[in-house]
Specification:
about 160 residues; 8 helices
Length: about 160
């Protein structure tokens, strides 16, 4: 029964993704890099980690949606469907709010209610992180991945005197 529910959610996602990019990402431009170019970044950089993420999962970049994949890396959210919904809860907790996000949350609660605890935990995690949903991660691809992640998760960097 769960497989049918997830197939329905995938169907809805595939039908709404283009509309989301068209109407909610009007001012967003596609990144200048592709998956292969990301793998050429320094080994500890955000760009390289993102390239490895695409390679590991067999994903390709979706124009104007690249930041979403960075969110997976920085928040340690998985890529299966219940994790995708949890990511939306995390982003809501982090301050993001739009119709697409709210629709994903409502559908997630209705169709996969058995993950409600995970969703609440993700929401609280988002509340405890620095607001990052609006950041331009393309400009940070050269930065050390762990430093970016620690900054967003409000971890203190050691100060060396």
């Amino acid at each position: 029964m769960k497989k049918i529910r997830i197939k329905f959610l995938l169907f809805v996602y595939e039908k709404t993704q283009r509309l989301y990019r068209k109407y909610f990402k009007k001012k967003t431009r596609q990144w200048r890099f592709n998956e292969k170019q990301l793998l050429e970044f320094h080994k500890d950089s955000l760009g390289r980690k993102l390239g490895e993420f695409y390679e590991k999962h067999g994903f390709t970049m979706i124009p104007k949606m690249e930041n979403h994949d960075v969110h997976h890396l920085l928040t340690d959210c998985g890529t299966n469907f219940e994790d995708e919904i949890a990511m939306q809860f995390l982003l809501l907790g982090n301050g993001k709010l739009n119709a697409h996000l709210l629709a994903a949350i409502v559908l997630g609660i209705i169709i996969l209610p058995e993950y409600s605890r995970m969703y609440i935990k993700a929401y609280r995690k988002g509340q405890n992180m620095r607001p990052f949903y609006h950041m331009d991660f393309e400009a940070l691809l050269w930065q050390n991945f762990e430093h970016v992640k620690d900054f967003i998760q409000k971890k203190q960097s050691p100060v060396l005197y």
